[in-house]
Amino acid sequence: MFKLIALFLTLYSLLMLTGCSTISGVFGHTSTEELIKNHQYQKAIDQIMAENPHNQALLLKIKVLAKKQSKEQSKKINQLVKQKKWGEARHLLNQLKENQPNSTSLPSLTLLIDKAQHEEERIVNTNRALAEAKLLNVQFIQQDLFDRIHYNQINWFSPHQGLVTKKKALAEELLHLSTQALLVKDYKNAQKTYEKAIELDKELGAREITDAIKTGLSEQSNKAINERQESLIRQLYLAIDKKDFEYILKIQSILSNRIFNGPQVARALIKATEIRQEYSKKLDTSASKEYRKGNISTAVTQWQQALILTPEEIDIQEKLLRARKVQRKLDKLTSDEND
Question: Is-above-0.85 flag for pTM?
Answer without folding.
Answer: no
